[in-house]
Amino acid sequence: MIAAVVVAGVVALAVVESRRPAAPAASPRPSRSSYVWATPEPPVPVVSPPVPPLPAYDIPDHWTTWAVLDRTTGKIVEWGGNPGTSTTESMIKAAIGFQYLLDLKAAGRSANQAETEMISRMIRDSNNEDAETLYRRGGREQMLRKVVDRCHLLSTTLVAGWWSETHMNAADAARLGACIAADQTPETAWLLQEMRQVRGEGRFGIIEVRPTDQGQPLAIKNGWNLRPDGWHSNCLAIAHRWTMAVMTRYPAYVNGKPTGMAYGAGLCAKFAASVAPPAEPSPRPARAFD
Fold it and tell me: I need a labelling partner for 55 at 20 to 30 A (CA). Which of 7, 71, 248, 256 fits?
């Protein structure tokens, strides 16, 4: 996504007024809960890469919230940061692809080649034009209302005609990821594979410190945009036993210097390094017995 451009169907950034301006807040500190992640067998040590460094300056008034969901129980086991919600930006494209495939299946058909290519570009490259086309074909906000109901999202609000203006908190984003992963169908398995192949400027954040999960690339969908109130940057990751979301807002300039989307990517990585479960090794192959 080009930060200063908003997709078809949405007015230009220069005339957009943020529906929910960020309120200055103290920089949240990651905290661990007392939850203990069960290990089915003695793990093989996995070395995680170092956390990418944040820019040299810190931003004291950024708004950040995070959540980790245990997929084995469906419970949020790590959460913290600022209260409230923020715009999802391109993170919601995972929901658009998910519901579009579900609607096709309900109609008794599979995605054709053109639809498959659109969904792939929307996920891998965060293509806005494809997202807008699929969103319109799927019924706009009615499509996302189905996702809210199906995934039991508790703090999500929709804006008519604007998928990028969907507001949610990190807990709902983690629930969304778990809901997508829980759908044990070939269509959703394919969507998750696409999310493991995100590339270009959209490949940042949680995946930088948890690049693999059970021998596969981590499934992710991030969102980012430069709005009148500053940067909105979000990260969603789906692993085999957990999902994690980080959502943040921060000023576009600090002391006259542009912050850029790299700062949001660094915040996602910072919180993932602090609260995400450790990387898991590839599943052990079955033993053969005579």
Answer: 7
26 vs 8: CA distance, rounded Å: 35
Q: Which amino acid is at 63?
A: W
**42 inside domain:** no
Cα–Cα distances (Å) from 202 to 46, 50, 114, 140, 166, in that order, read 25, 20, 22, 23, 19
Q: How big is the CA angle at 225 (ends 170 and 205), to the nearest 5 degrees? A: 55
Residue pair 112/137 in contact by the 8 Å Cβ criterion: no
* Number of structural domains in the chain: 1
Beta bridge partners of 65: 81, 247
Whether 41 is in a domain gets the answer no
Give the CATH number of the domain where residue 109 resides: 3.40.710.10
Q: How many residues does the chain have?
A: 290
User: How confident is the model over 113-151, as pLDDT tens digits?
Assistant: 999 999 999 999 999 999 999 999 999 999 999 999 999
